[in-house]
Amino acid sequence: MTSTKLLSHHRTLNLLSLLLFIGLWQSLALYLSDNSLPTPTTVAKVFWQETLSGQLPYHLGITLLRLVSSFTIAMLLGCAIGIVLGRSKKLDAFFDNWLVIFLNIPALVTIILCYVWFGLVESAAILAVVINKLPNVVVTIREGTRALDKDLLEMARCYHFGKRKTLIHVIWPQLHPFVMGATRSGLALIWKIILVVELLGRSNGMGYQLHLFFQLFDVASILAYTIAFVAVIQLIELVVLKPLDRRAGRWRR
Amino acid sequence: MAPMTAITVDIINKSYPAAGQAGLHQAIANLKLSLPSNEFICLVGPSGCGKTTLLNILAGLDKDYSGEITVEHQHKVAQQHKAPKIGYVFQNPRLLPWRTVRENITLTLPKDHDPKSVDALLETMQLFQAQHVYPERLSLGMSRRVSIIRAFAVDPDILLMDEPFVSLDAPTARQVRQLLIELWLQRPHTVLFVTHDLREAIALADRLIFLSSPPMQAISDIKVPIPRNERNNEAEVESFRQKLLQDYPEIRSLL
Nearest C-alpha of chain A: how many angstroms from B108? Predict the structure, then answer.
């Protein structure tokens, strides 16, 4: 009872804050009445036109596809490397320097180098994003692996769980919060980098379009695309990540 | 033929390396024990004397020691299990918090195990109602009982118990003790039971082994002559305890 009440209360507040934001934007735009800050209604119109023409869905789709593939590769590789480094002190000591180097290379440098070395191709674009994201995942998962409960691992060894069972029932549930953390920070990082990758070396996708609009000073289109992108990321959070969190946390009091 | 599992322990030295302020700590020195097959043995000693270390070594969890542990194991179904099955009731329950009570138990069992045997154990330990609950909702006493069921359920050849009845209320402790003995009589296996409580040790054991403060050594090794059906008789247990304390004054400092 109280929790649903609280929830609806929370929703109303959310809605109010959103309305206030749009209202502020609208009044500021009307006050300035300048092309560099179009009103929300103008942006909505552009959004609708772009959606109807199929331009926005196409470019958004392309970018999302790149996001999903680079994200998947980075997470799988990162988890595997992170677990290995977290479990082995020797390997960790050896590869720690590499990690520090890769963590500190600016995203722009990796992107440029990938394009220079492998050409302006799709795989170079994906590779650039993966290289940018991978060290972050490795560091997070390594931290998680180091924090694994030794008592439970001993229990698993004593009762002959074997590698597979230990991974599924003992290690993975403990890593889950770290993986979710890496996922969240990863999505935020990747979708910022991916636009730069597209801007520099691809002829489609959100980054490419934004570059085009920038050259035309078409702020309304830039905002329309931005809103679409933010909405999609929020949707991923709501539809995929939140339910995953809930499912994994149901054993907690 | 019942399974035979005899263990010979000969640990020359087990030390923990110096870490920070703490210097090198020698936990065990020249510990020789012979644990015949299917005997119920209680290890009694002061806390921190290295009993848990000894159990970890026996369970194969700690391999960093000098000395030798020999396990002679013969099973009725020849070579079905090369290594003896070990049930270990740790000092803390060590349940997986993200698995339910029942899952925590069945995870240690092969896929084709008989669910009825788990049901029966849950029933006796009064946890049948709680079998689908996550461990965070259990009291410490209940969690302990789950970890005891887990150790019983694997039908161990060697059962290691590290002060398993601490924090159980007296009636439950008595009940679980009774169950432990029943299960052991039904299906004999080698039991190593660590405790502080001399009365509990006398009520349970075939043999008492008294251990010194670190570096741990065996001080005395005493058979309990009270027949199994007299073990519930508290007067009998108490008089044997008094006799022990009188005959072996060195024990008194350990308790």
Answer: 6
User: Is B69 exposed, middle or buried, given 0-12, 13-18 or 19+ CB atoms closer than 10 A?
Assistant: middle
Between B152 and B228, residue with greater pLDDT: B152
Name the nearest CA neighbour of A173 among A237, A251, A238, A86. A251
Q: In terms of residue numbers, what domain contains B45?
A: 38-60+81-85+155-252
In a domain, residue B22? The reply is: no
Q: List pLDDT tens digits, range A70-89.
A: 999 999 999 999 999 998 88
CA distances for B151 relative to A162, A228, B86, B139, angstroms: 17, 56, 8, 19
CA–CA–CA angle A230, A23, A192 (5° rounding): 20
In chain B, residues 150-189 whose CB comes closer than 8 Å to chain A:
150, 154
Q: Across the interface, which of A154, A173, A251 has its CB nearest the CB of B61?
A: A154
If one counts every other C-beta atom within 10 angstroms of the C-beta of residue B97, the result is 17
**In chain A, how many domains are there?**
1
DSSP string covering chain B? ---EEEEEEEEEEEEEPPBTTB--EEEEEEEEEEE-TT-EEEEE--TTSSHHHHHHHHTTS----EEEEEEEEE-SSTTS-SSPPEEEE-SS----TTS-HHHHHHTTS-TT--HHHHHHHHHHTT-STTTTS-GGGS-HHHHHHHHHHHHHHT--SEEEEESTTTTS-HHHHHHHHHHHHHHHHHS--EEEEEES-HHHHHHH-SEEEEEPSSSB-EEEEEE--S-GGGTT-HHHHHHHHHHHHHH-HHHHTT-
DSSP B115-175: HHHHHHHHHHTT-STTTTS-GGGS-HHHHHHHHHHHHHHT--SEEEEESTTTTS-HHHHHH
Domain span at residue A183? 41-248
ipTM reported for the complex, 2 dp: 0.84
Contacts of B134 in chain A (CB under 8 A): 250-252
- CATH number for the domain spanning B197: value is 3.40.50.300
Q: Is residue A102 part of a domain?
A: yes
Predicted confidence (pLDDT) per residue in A24-66, tens digit: 999 998 898 888 889 899 999 999 999 999 999 999 999 999 9
Distance (Å, whole) CA A73 – CA A66: 11
A60 in a structural domain:
yes
Q: Is residue A32 part of a domain?
A: no
Q: How far is CA A140 from CA A145, A175, B1, in A?
A: 9, 10, 54
| Residue B219 placed within a domain | yes
Tokens of A149: 């409960």
Residue A222: both structure tokens together: 């830039």
Please give the tally of structural domains in chain B.
1
Q: How far is B192 from chain A (nearest CA, A)?
A: 15
Cβ within 8 Å, pair B99-A169: yes
Instruction: Take residue B149 and report the two structure tokens written for it.
Output: 């069921």
Q: State the Cα angle at B113 between B110 and B115, rounded to 5°.
A: 135
